[in-house]
Amino acid sequence: MNDEHNKQWCQCHLMEVLSDHPAYPIEYCSRTRTFELIYGNGLGRHRLYYCFDCGGNLPEEDYSTRPVPDEREQAEAESIMSSALTVAEVVSALGPPDEEIPWSEGPGTEIYEELAKRYPDQYAPGRNWLRCLRYSKRWRSLLLDILEYEGGEIEYSIWEQSVE
User: In CA terms, which of 47, 79, 144, 150 is 20 to 30 Å from 5?
Assistant: First the structure.
């Protein structure tokens, strides 16, 4: 693998052009200076590191501009989630979600199911969540995703969101 000084940067600019056209699932984020492949109804994202055409390195993420959840907001969300064991308890504490995403519409659902079929040793079918409850409006700096599994078990993720 090349070290930092020997990297060959993309010179063909294909990713730039693709990201300018809505027909292609490539986005450029000017805030982090990165290109991403968008999939799963726009909900899934994979960071791209190399150009499809010339194989050159794409820009590396500029972490200095990445948003970070506000500590108080994150503490509040974690406090609520530490005592919520069911979806009913989450909804009781936070109210109805801003968005509800069923597994069938989740990012890459069909892709991971196909990988598990083709390569069962590498992609053992895991437990799929039934739905995702997303809270994106309660806090300015973060969003909260709650995944519900069969049997009622839940887990959560806290994500940064851009403060406009």
Answer: 47
| CA 73 – CA 139 distance, rounded (Å) | 7
Question: Percent helix, strand and coil across the chain, each rounded to 5?
Answer: 30, 25, 45
User: In the beta sheet, which residues pair with residue 132?
Assistant: 101, 147
Angstrom CA distances, 121 to 29, 114, 126, 163, stand at 35, 13, 12, 42
- What are the tens digits of pLDDT across the range 9-57? 899 999 999 999 989 999 988 777 889 888 776 767 788 999 989 999 9
Length of the chain: 164
Mean pLDDT on 48-69 = 82
User: Amino acid identity, residue 65?
Assistant: T
* 115-to-38, 109, 123, 124 alpha-carbon distances in Å: 18, 10, 6, 9
Return left, alpha or beta for 22; rule: phi > 0 is left, psi -120 to 50 is alpha, else beta.
Answer: alpha
At 156 the three-state DSSP class reads: strand
CB 116 within 8 A of CB 123: yes
Please return the burial class of 6, using the count of CB atoms within 10 Å of its CB with bins 0-12, 13-18 and 19+.
Answer: exposed
